[in-house]
Amino acid sequence: MNVKILVVDDDPGIRELVRITLQDAGYRVAVAGDAIGALSLLDTEHPDLAVVDVMMPGMDGFALTRELKSFRDMPVLLLTAKGALEDKERGFRAGSDDYVVKPFEPKELLFRVEAILRRYRKEEEAPILAGPLEIDRQSYEVACGNRTLLLPLKEFELLTILASRPNVVFERERLLERVWGLDYEGDDRTLSVHIKRIRGRLEGLTDRVSIVTVRGVGYKLEIRP
Description:
The chain is of the alpha/beta class. It has helices spanning about 10-25, 35-45, 60-70, 85-95, 105-125, 155-165, 170-180, 190-205, and strands at about 5-10, 30, 50-55, 75-80, 100, 130, 135, 140-145, 145-150, 170, 210-215, 220-225. Helix 1 (about 10-25) crosses helix 5 (about 105-125) and helix 6 (about 155-165) crosses helix 8.
């Protein structure tokens, strides 16, 4: 099984239990004791899913979930001793995909992880529809009517991120992190150049889809009727 899971928990006992449970099921596992440690592992470990404890010192699990979602839209399973409805609501509003309350049965953790991964695999296989555009994440093709466009990888990744949430503004820093990585040290003009190229390519396909600059913040993809 070539799936890597990031386990983030400040309790060494729970962290080890989750690690062993996942490894015994065939998953590759990376571990961190806090949110900062987890974020530092993203570029080197490339996890497919994160199991995150809510109650951690410093950045809590809700805040870490939002970071993981904004970075790579990574699936997140929250693991916590809190079972109150308001805590579950906070978790789902932060973007978590599921919620397991401690103490938990290892089998329950496994089937919830498997369910999240199945759901994400289906979503990744499905094309993104943005107005007249159909973006195929398997073939890296962008189709509009009977015309098909092949984009360079970085441009395709940027367009895919923006098209996944039309009218949502993505900050420049977040786009750079998601496409070029957390350790990118280049000039952010690189992003501007890539956006300009994508705009030029879209103009040749349709006038219904455009990438709009939100001054001082970032970019969003707009779809006109």
